[in-house]
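I'll show a typical protein example:
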Amino acid sequence: MIAFRGAYTALVTPFSSDAATIDFGRLSEHIRFQAEGGVAGVVPAGTTGESPTLTEIEQCELIERTVAVARPLNLQVIAGAGSNNTAHAVHLNKFAAAAGADAALQVNPYYNKPSQEGLYRHFMTIADAVDLPIVLYNIPGRCGVALTPATVERLAHHPNIRAIKEATGSLDSASEIASRCGITILSGDD
């Protein structure tokens, strides 16, 4: 069971000088640098890693390579495996689990702007489909929709939904989530 403690670095995705391919050598150096700095884990293919601009093959290879480098360094890996397409998010989560990620980061479905019930169903479908701890990522500034504390409380009943990266910028929202349920609250906005 993963314990979310300490700092997790949202990794950039380094590209070759011609921007045609991911530079996995530089990625490995960056992960080792993070380990030397004492972080608890790394987050590949998140917002900082420009996941919406990666092909599926690039995203999967990025997750796989990150796990391969991070594991011997005793770093946890929270794989960016979210999508506004529920079926695609399920597929990415299954891949992340098979690759050995410790958890998956699930961004609110962007562009579609689902209702709270739509958000609930999206995240529950993912949580039901794969046995991997999920970190919800509530970042309305990038997604156009926010999870309410009441919806987070409903989602927190699922054993796979273990944490939320709360990026609304609202201490009131984080406080209400904390008072409603025991989900781990992480902070970050990248």
